[in-house]
Amino acid sequence: MEKFAQRLKQCREQKKSSNPNWTQKFVADKIGMARTTYTAYENGTKLPPLDIVDNLASLLEVSTDYLLGRTDIKEPNNIDSNAEFEAWVNDPRSKILFKEFNESSEEQKEALLKMWEILKNQGKL
């Protein structure tokens, strides 16, 4: 609970350093709660429900795991990774490989995976 309170306050104050509007009242209003309730979260005397943790993380542009002290990585899911995955999924060559791999027998799948490893180890991939 202490870690959450520290990180919540730290994130808000970091935003406030570049924009003075980021007061406790400002955040409380954005989330739709009383300032005293939000202040209790920053002071560590009260823990918010999960939906509020999620809303706070979104507002502060950090991950819920960061706020909860589970990781030191502030950023929520890496947008670049998502874009990279979307590009791969939408590439017609990937669709062919995925479809054909799934339609292959187990023996063929094993052979393809072995060939892939050989190519990777030769520095071709």
TrEMBL record:
<feature type="domain" description="HTH cro/C1-type">
    <location>
        <begin position="8"/>
        <end position="67"/>
    </location>
</feature>
<keyword id="KW-0238">DNA-binding</keyword>
<dbReference type="Pfam" id="PF01381">
    <property type="entry name" value="HTH_3"/>
</dbReference>
<protein>
    <submittedName>
        <fullName>Helix-turn-helix transcriptional regulator</fullName>
    </submittedName>
</protein>
<dbReference type="InterPro" id="IPR001387">
    <property type="entry name" value="Cro/C1-type_HTH"/>
</dbReference>
<dbReference type="InterPro" id="IPR010982">
    <property type="entry name" value="Lambda_DNA-bd_dom_sf"/>
</dbReference>
<feature type="region of interest" description="Disordered">
    <location>
        <begin position="1"/>
        <end position="20"/>
    </location>
</feature>
<feature type="compositionally biased region" description="Basic and acidic residues">
    <location>
        <begin position="1"/>
        <end position="16"/>
    </location>
</feature>
